[in-house]
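Structure ticket #2291
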Amino acid sequence: MDCAQICAQVAGPLPVFLRAICGAITAQHGKPNKTELDLTPGQLDYLRRLIKAILEGRAVVACYNIVVVSVILFFTFLHFRQAKRDKRKWDEIKAKPIYNVSQPSALSGDGASSSTEATASPLGDDDKDLDVDLESLPLLLSSPSTSVNHKSTPEDRHYSAASISKSFLAYEPPTLFDKTLPCNGKSLFILGWFAIVLFFHFYRLPLSWDYFFVFADRAGCHFIVNLPLLYLLGAKNQPLRAMTGYSYEQLNFFHRRIGEMMCFEALVHFSAMVYYQFCLAEDWLLVSHSAKEYFTHPIILMGLGALTSYQLLYFTSLRSFRQRWYELFLASHIVLQVLALVFLAFHYPTSRWYVCIAMSIFIADRIVWRSIYSKKAKVIADLTVLDPETLLVSADWDLPFREKNPGFTGGYWSVLHTGWEPAAHVFLSVPELGKTHSLQAHPFTIASAAPGRVKSNHDEWKHTWLCLLVRAQNGFTAELLQLARTKKQVSVQLDGPYGSQDAVNMLRASRFPVLVAGGSGIAVVFSMVWSLLNEEEFRTDEGGNVVAPRRRKRKISLLWVTRSRNQQEWVPSKDLDLLVERGLELVMPPPTEEVGRPNVRSIVMKWVEEAGLLGEDASVVVSGPDELNRAVRNACADSIAEGHRPRIAVEKFGW
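Resolution: structure written out below.
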C-alpha cells in the first residue's frame, strides 16, 4: 500500500499537518513530476505507523466512557440497595418503636465535656402508647456515666483488619497549606479515577520520541471524552442525584476534580504539541515552518481560545476567588463555558459529537428544563437583622393539600410552593439590590421546619414558614444585610427546593440518630430533628378514614456548638424546649468565645458507644465549619476502629 492509498483511507479524522500532507500527496498522485512530496520507503512506513497509532489511541480513549457508565451504574446499584435496607429498617422501627429516654429541660452544660444527662424513664401512664421491645433491651441498662468508660482499655477494645481499614477510609486528615482535605476514602477514589485516566492514556502508546505526537494527541482526546461527565456533574437538574443519592454539593466536589484533571490534560496537550512542532518533528512533516505561521493558523488559534477559556474557568472556580467575587464567578462561568465549547468544536472537528452532548446538557439545565418545569417562585419576604453579621429572610404561605404517601421518596420532583423536605436548599435572588444581583442566584439552606407531605385529610390547606439564615460576607450577602437595616420587606425570587434526602433517610432508619451542628449549621440540622420528632402516624377506622394522629417517641441526640450568645438565639428556646419534651437530648455548651471549644470527640464517641451497648448502630450527621466536621468524622472513625459501626454524613454546603 503506497502513501496515497493510506491517506485516502484515513485522511478525514487526521491532525491538520497529516491532512495537509495526505491532501497534497493525493492531489499529485499519478502525476509524472512529483519531487517535493515524494517520500522515501522509510518515511512512508513511518507515516503508516504514525497514522495507525493515532487512530488506535483514539479508539482506546473512546472506551473510557464505558468505564464511566459502569461506575455510575455500580453506584446506582449501591444506592438503591442501601435505600431498600433503610426503608426496611424504618418499617421495623415503625412496627416496634425504640426505647424512649426522658430528658431534662436543661439546654447547656459545661464547656469541656458538657452533656445533658439522660436517664431511663419508667413506663408509666405517660408512656402507655409507647410499645417497647423488651427483648431487645439489656437486663442491666448502663447509665451514660458508665457507658463513657465502655471499651476504655485496650483489653476491652476489639480491633480487626476490617474495622481498621474502614476507620482509615472514614478518617479525614488535617488541613494542608490551609486547604481542607477530603476523607481518605474519597481521596482514594479520586486517585483511583486518575489511575484509570493514566491507564487509558498510556495503553498501547508507542514509547518513542518519534511518536511523541501520539502522546500529545491522546491528552487532547482525554479532555474531549470527559466533557459530557464534566457538564453532567455540574448541572443542578440532572439524573445522577436520583440515581446515586449524592447531593448536588457532593457531586460538585467530583465535578471540580474532573475539571482540574481536564485543565491539566489541556496543558499537557498544548505543551506537548508545541514541543513536537519545534523540537521533534522533521521538516517534511511540518506545515508551518515559523512560530508566527504556526500560532496564527486557524486551527491553532481555535485551540488557544479553548485552552484560555478553560484555564480561566479553573482559576475563577477556585474557592478563594468564589468567596471574594462570587458574582463574577457566576457570570464568567456561563460565558466562558459557551466560548470554550465553540472554540473546541472548530479546533478539533472530531470532538463535535462530545461538544454537542456537553452543550445539550448545559442548555437543558439552564434553559429548557427551567422553562418546562420551573422551580422558581416569587414571594414577599421579611428581613430581620439577628446580629451584626447575620440576618433572617422569612416568608410564609398556605400549602395546598397533597394526598401522597410518606416515606423515602426524596421530594426531588416537588416545587417550592407545594412544600419541601428537611435539609433542602434554595437559590435566592433579590432584584431590589439592582441589576448587578438581579440575575444572580445564591444558595441557602432552608432553616425552618420542613412541612414535608400532608398526610392527613383534616384540612385541605396547611400554613408554613420558610426561613433562610444568611451570614454576611462580601458582595451579595453584605448588600442584603445593609438592605435589611433599612427595609423590612422585599420581593425575592426562590429557586428550589434542591438537595438529597439520603442523610434524613439514614437518620430515620437508625434507632440512635446523632446530629452535630456548628454555628449556622443548625439551619441544616434543626429541620432534620424537627422532622424526626414530629413525624406522625394516623390511626384509621374500619373504612380507612383517618381518625386520630399518633406521634412517635424517639431518642435523638443533638450537639450545637455556638461562637456567641447571639447565635444561641437563632432558634427560639420554646422550639428547643418542645423538642426536648419529645425525646431530644440537647447539648448546647457555652459559647466558644467564652470557654473555648467543647470536647466534641468525647461527646460523639459517648453517644456512639451508648448505641453499641444496646446492640445498635448510631447514624451521625454533622453540619458546620470544616474543623467541626473533621472532628466529628474522625470521632466516628475512631469508633469504627474499636468495633462500632456508625454511619456518618457530612452536610457541607458548597458552591
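Closing remark: The chain has three domains: 65-74+184-372, 97-171+501-538+546-655, 375-500.
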